Amino acid sequence: MAAKGMKDLIELLKDGHARTIPMLADEMNESESDVLRQIEYLEHIGRVRRVFQDKVSCKGCSGCSSKDGAKACKSCLPDGGFKNMGQMWEVI
Question: What is the pTM of this model?
Answer without folding.
Answer: 0.61
